[in-house]
Amino acid sequence: MNDALKAYLEQEGGTELDQDLIQAHLRAMTEEVVPAIVDDLVEADQVAAELRFSSATTRRRDR
Amino acid sequence: VSDYKWVPIKSQADYDQLTPLLDPDFQPQTVVRKLKEGIRDTVAGILVEYEYIDKDYRSTFYHFYAKKGRLYRDDCIRLHFFDAQVGYDTATTSLTCADERLDDHYFGFVVLRPTLVATIGRSILSPDIRTGAKGHAIQAQHRVHLLGRRLSIWGFPSMSQHSDISVCAHVSCWAILRHYSERFPQHREWLLYDITVMASPFDPGGITPAFGLNIFEAERIFQAAGTYPVIVGKVSGDEDRFYAQMLAYLESGFPLFAQMKKHAHAIVLTGHAWANHAPPPPISSSHAWSQVDSLLGVDDNLLPYGCIPAGAATASAGGTVASYTADEIDAFIVPLPDKIFYPASAVERQSIEFYRLLTNIGVALPPEDRLLRRYFVTTISALRRFAWDRRSELGDKLVNMLMRLRTAQFVWVVEYASDAQWAQGHVAARAILDATASPHDPMPVWFSHDSDDAILFDRTSATGSPTIAPLGRTPGTPLGRMEQNLRPIRPATS
Fold this sequence. Notes:
heterodimer; A: elongated; B: 8-stranded antiparallel sheet; 7-stranded antiparallel sheet; 11 helices
């Protein structure tokens, strides 16, 4: 998977990124961002449920 | 027997010539008024095609109008719009065009149906001739057979609601699904009567639609048609996130079914125009929505591509056509294809945290108070087409990487720019996210690059390490914004 691109990057002088930065990012994502994303989805589901039976339209008012 | 009449148009008053040519069943005065109000003066000739058989009108005729006590005709009239290079020769029943490139001089058609009221039926018009239309619009190429020729026109479907068998929400669903069937071969064509039936778990018999539709019924239509609809509602105090999602899906090329409770009305959002030049908002809402001047709407009360100001502050912007603003949109439905599991709301949060990672890595990104973010879904094929078309700008190495990048079919593209770069149509960096990622995925990123370096994120194992490599691009060559899903509107001039 992505071996061809990985090999290409290495051929072009690619290096591994600083693991500390990546781990800090993963921690921030796991502890703060992902829970917020999930909360958003739960709220969006509730809003959608309330919206489903709201009227989208009524009869035409010709202009 | 079909017949044809040519109407030369040199001024708005010339549209009045259509009135005596149209039977009163087609409501000619109202049609002429709408054409005068809504069509640019580029149109120099209209071919009237009589006794046209329109599949969408016939679908309602067979199942509804034929059952009524009043007699309704079964034929329609089609009006075709051309520029000044085209003429009509009655002796040979043929269109004449000096360069024989009729497609270049054709602006589409409007079908008139004999329903006495709301007679504008299935229409495909180029946004280039619509008064006030500007920016970019979602369009598909539609084939048109006329006088033995096969013409093509880029546009978005529209029609007036019938008011008896269909209301604006049916028509909005029909327009979106007709766009899908023309644009994407995997989607079948649904006629207007099909749409009215799909809204209910039983055959409504032509009565229920008159009472209007609710969001659930619209969602049901999109589900029955084989799409995966997502409902997004506006929450008081969190409007920025709502409009960011709206723009993200719109820029992805998905037309949106938009609800306005205040007007008890539904329309289709089909495009937008940049140009607000507002200062960037705080990073928590640093989305490019702040730069939107107006949206384009397909409203069954108007000709298509009505210009909708983005907010009350821009409501006086030139070209305004609709009587409402984007502030009045309360919810939208986006009918998605399968395999888009990572929603726009997740990209909204993820792209801010990813900006912080890139900044910590040393990527040259604008400071938070100058930052604008923009994101949209595209296919990996479209991304590679963009790379190929812009290979001199991107440089060989970046193009090589994008051609080798292995992803899912759909990807989210996130672009970061400063407001100064935005004004030039440039970006500072771009990230390619996995549109099939779980919302729980802490690193849903395939790839990222700025002007100097590219980063490959290994999504093949839990422990894979990102690799950064230099791009070796020509110094000082800016990266251009990727705008591929929507087509630019080029207002035609006479």
